[in-house]
Design a protein that fits this description.
- With 864 residues, the protein is of the alpha/beta class.
- The chain has four domains: 400 residues, Kinesin (3-Layer(aba) Sandwich); 76 residues; 105 residues, no CATH class; 76 residues.
- It is 56% helix and 11% strand.
- The protein is built from 28 helices and 19 strands.
- β10 and β11 form a beta hairpin.
- α10 packs parallel to α11.
- Bound molecules: adenosine-5'-triphosphate.
- Adenosine-5'-triphosphate binds next to α7 and β14.
- This is Kinesin-like protein.
- One of its GO terms (molecular function) is microtubule motor activity.
- Pfam families: Kinesin (PF00225).
- Belongs to the TRAFAC class myosin-kinesin ATPase superfamily. Kinesin family. KIN-7 subfamily.
């Protein structure tokens, strides 16, 4: 820790070299003088040669410590960032009231003896990237190592807080830079695996709202052993910088923003973006290892408003809430630095309650105070400087948070993956018992054959069940594995354990930046001043050059452009070789290959999977790197399609969802831009940007339509295959029935043959009989002819014989009946006799009519 003496001497040195700005008098405060001041203080570093000494210096100081090493262990890092005078301020003839005097001192123009020293002071032309490197990088590094971190921008309204924290496409702010850096650190730390979650909230009029979940309004702040937390806040696991940035952009849509006298897009709420980082050792021996758990809070405070601000109604109410919470923040900070204070009023505002753990010294804190040099805000700037000065004295003890218990999400996922893998192994072992069983069968076939047959059906169904369970397990392992991020670099030393020398620059992919506003501008500006404003942005010119260059390169194809970008960014190269773009080139042109090509293209167009994003490549690699056995995936593939149809449909749906999200986002940006355009109809770049966005929306909608068609086709194909399956089942059933029927038919045909034989035999017999009858007939007619008896006469004779016999018999009976005691019986007998006689007579009459040869048949003989 630097001593006060040391700091003092350093400040003295700065004072002696301090430069007096050109715009130091009322009369000279014109646009040109301002420009001169800005030019002279490029990158916040005043030229010592042009500095002039001051008499009776009276200055305030804070410890200036080594930025690279021990500093964050001792004090809050406090930096001050000047913004340039806005064209409006220039137009209004504002003067420079405060300026950056060297790298660490802010001095008052009118009273040069009033000066404050900080860890670093950034002049109006310093780029946000530089601010990040000095004021934020060590906090982000710490968070990735398990040390809590908080970075916040503090300042009056329109001083540049949002510009610093969020930025725009040309100059990404601390938040996107930190997110990007976090993923780069993962990439450079191959010996650990990470799980990143984000949440995003706002405190508006002392109410906590969840910006990632519009339903999460007025949330409660709770406290537990770990500190304060917001109950029910939505946390999203993030897989790439673009993914995280898209969430922020979605959250920004819900943030309360309004126009004030000072800023047309003034933040009316404090926002806290929290990145929760869990990491553990990667590899075999990670079981039982402690997990590093930390939170990186990136805070964009609403700006305090001066009493001069002519606000009314809602704005006034918002302003008073903002001022009250910032006042409480100030009180908390001064009490924290006053060793005698017994009570720290954290509970007096939601903001200080949520910052309690950071402010009370548990973790690294970086305070970036944004100020305007303008004389009209001189008093507010002075207050900001005093606040910053007080904050510098807060002592912190940054220590790693290690958790041994299983509470961390990463441990939970790791354990689940481990146990699922074990389960999978068991299943596999269960399945491979079949060949072993077969081996035994070979030894003693007779003994086990019966057993095998019995168990076969049972085993088959068990196998099917187990296959299903295996597939389910694999897909769960896959899903969980995807959430845990690991570096794709196999044997590189960890960046965390062995810090590399110069830091690598990881440039943003264009798609990642799409989530940032095109260019946040002071909407009070005139058109003619835009160029001036823009040119004040440190390396804007070179950025423009790069942009032009990139546009030129992109004309030669997206893949080439991406390759070039990867080469430029350094990091991408190691992963780009294995990226889907390369894969798609070598994939054969089968329907499956077409599919994967499409996926690769879609990855190019989708920010969260953008090729220029190292994490996206990283994620594609994760699947190959992890221990999920490849053969198991293959087992589930259908030979024709490569991937299961349902997976394919899921994949297409996922892509469709992603694209729809992008369209929604672009549409909302377009809406915002059209509002802006209606306010500033002459601004051509807005129209251009709107056109670009509409074109993109159109292209994406076309892609969505294509995806919808593909999904419909896939569903149809799967239905068809289902229908085919059903049809083949029906055919199989029908074939079985057919076989059965043809067997029956065969049996019946055999029966028929036998019957046919019997029939022909009978016919032969009949023919023989027929011949006999004919010959008998012949014989009979010959015989009758020889006796000259007509068959009819013989019948008549017989009938009359019978009739006389009947009459005789009747008479005898009557005589006998009188003698017989049993008259009834006799009568009955008579009746019976009558009946029989009548029958025979009738019979004979009939026969006579039918067959003249009846006489050949022996007539009945009746006993009396
Ligand atoms: N360092 C800078 N360089 C260039 N322009 C800047 C800089 N800082 C701020 N600006 C511009 O100043 C204007 C106001 O900035 P910004 O909205 O970030 O202020 P703020 O402090 O967040 O305001 P509020 O508290 O009202 O939300 C914006 O148009 C922004 O682009």
């Amino acid at each position: 820790m630097a001593t006060k003496q040391g700091s003092k001497s350093r400040i003295s040195g700065l004072i002696s070299n301090s430069k007096k700005p050109a715009a130091n008098s009322q009369s000279s405060s014109t646009a040109s003088s301002t420009k001169q001041f800005l030019e002279n203080s490029m990158d916040g570093q005043s030229s010592p040669a042009s500095s002039s000494a001051r008499s009776k210096p009276q200055y305030f100081y804070s410890e200036s410590v080594n930025l690279d090493t021990e500093r964050s262990k001792e004090n809050v890092t406090v930096t001050v960032r000047f913004r340039p005078l806005s064209p409006r301020e220039i137009r209004q003839g504002e003067e420079i009231a405060w300026y950056a005097d060297g790298e660490t001192v802010v001095r008052n123009e009118h009273n040069p003896s009033t000066a404050y020293a900080y860890d670093r002071v950034f002049g109006p032309t310093t780029t946000t990237r530089h601010v990040y490197d000095v004021a934020a990088q060590h906090v982000v590094n710490g968070a990735m190592e398990g040390i809590n971190g908080t970075i916040f921008a503090y300042g009056v309204t329109s001083s540049g807080k949002t510009h610093t924290m969020h930025g725009d496409q040309r100059s990404p702010g601390i938040i996107p830079l930190a997110v990007k850096d976090a993923f780069s650190i993962i990439q450079e730390t191959p010996n650990r695996e990470f799980l990143l979650r984000v949440s995003y909230l706002e405190i508006y009029n002392e109410v906590v709202n969840d910006l990632l979940n519009p339903a999460g309004q007025n949330l409660r702040i709770r406290e537990d052993a770990q500190g304060t937390f917001v109950e029910g806040i939505k946390e999203e696991v993030v897989l790439s910088p673009a993914h995280a940035l898209s969430l922020i952009a979605a959250g920004e849509e819900h943030r309360h923003v309004g126009s004030t006298n000072f800023n047309l897009l003034s933040s009316r709420s404090h926002t806290i973006f929290t990145l929760t980082v869990e990491s553990s050792l990667y590899g075999e021996n990670s079981e039982g290892e402690a997990v590093n758990l930390s939170q990186l809070s990136l805070i964009d405070l609403a700006g305090s408003e001066s009493s001069k601000a002519e606000t009314t109604g809602v704005r006034r109410k918002e302003g008073s809430y903002i001022n009250k919470s910032l006042l409480t923040l100030g009180t908390v900070i001064s009490k924290l630095t006053d060793g005698r204070a017994a009570h720290i009023p954290y509970r007096d505002s939601k903001l200080t309650r949520l910052l309690q753990s950071s402010l009370s010294g548990h973790g690294r804190v970086s305070l970036i105070c944004t100020v305007t040099p303008s004389s009209s805000s001189s008093e507010e700037t002075h207050n900001t400087l005093k606040f910053a000065h007080r904050a510098k004295h807060i002592e912190i003890q940054a220590a790693q948070n290690k958790i041994i218990d299983e509470k961390s999400l990463i441990k939970k996922y790791q354990n689940e993956i481990r146990s699922l893998k074990e389960e999978l192994e068991q299943l596999k072992r269960g399945i491979v018992t079949i060949p072993r069983l077969k081996d035994i069968v070979e030894d003693d076939i007779v003994l086990l054959k019966q057993k095998l047959e019995d168990g076969q059906v049972k085993l088959q169904s068990r196998l099917e069940q187990e296959e299903e369970a295996k597939a389910a397990l694999l897909s769960r392992i896959q899903r969980l594995t995807k959430l845990i991020l690991v570096s794709t670099k196999a044997s590189q030393p960890s960046r965390i354990s062995h810090r590399p020398g110069p830091r690598r620059r990881h440039s943003f992919g264009e798609e990642e930046l799409a989530y940032l506003p095109y260019k946040r501008q002071d909407l009070i500006l005139d058109d003619e001043n835009i160029d001036l404003y823009v040119s004040l942005e440190g390396n804007t010119e070179s950025a423009d050059e790069t942009l032009k260059e990139e546009k030129k390169t992109r004309k030669h194809g997206l893949l080439n452009w991406l390759k070039l970008r990867k080469r430029d960014s350094g990091l991408g190269m190691s992963t780009s070789d294995k990226s889907s773009g390369v894969k798609s080139n070598s994939t054969p042109s089968t329907p499956q290959a077409e599919n994967s090509n499409y996926y690769a293209e879609s990855r190019l167009s989708h920010p969260s999977l953008a090729e220029s994003s190292p994490s996206a490549d990283l994620l594609s690699e994760v699947r190959q790197d992890r221990e999920v056995p490849e053969d198991n995936f293959l087992e589930q593939e259908t030979p024709l399609n490569g991937i299961k149809t349902s997976d394919q449909i899921d994949l297409l749906r996922e892509q469709q969802k992603i694209l729809s999200g992008e369209v929604a986002l672009h549409s909302s940006i377009l809406k915002r831009l059209s509002e802006e355009a209606s306010r500033n109809p002459l601004k051509e770049h807005i129209q251009l940007e709107m056109k670009k966005l509409s074109d993109e929306i159109k292209v994406k909608n076309e892609q969505i339509a294509l995806l919808e068609k593909q999904i419909a086709d896939s569903i149809m194909a799967s239905h068809n295959s289902l229908a085919n399956l059903e049809a083949s089942q029906t055919i199989a059933e029908l074939t079985a029935q057919l076989n059965e029927k043809s067997f029956e038919l065969e049996v019946k045909a055999a029966d028929n043959c036998i019957i046919q034989d019997q029939l022909s035999q009978k016919i032969c017999e009949c023919e023989g009989l027929q011949e006999t009858i004919v010959s008998l007939k012949q014989q009979l007619s010959d015989a009758l002819e020889s006796k000259n008896i007509s068959p009819l006469a013989s019948y008549s004779q017989r009938i009359s014989e019978l009739k006389s016999f009947h009459a005789q018999h009747h008479m005898n009976k009557e005589t006998a009946a009188s003698k017989d005691r049993n008259e009834d019986l006799l009568l009955q007998a008579q009746h019976n006799f009558d009946h029989v006689m009548a029958f025979e007579v009738a019979f004979l009459i009939q026969v006579r009519e039918v067959n003249p040869y009846f006489s050949l048949i022996r007539p009945l003989r009746w006993k009396n």
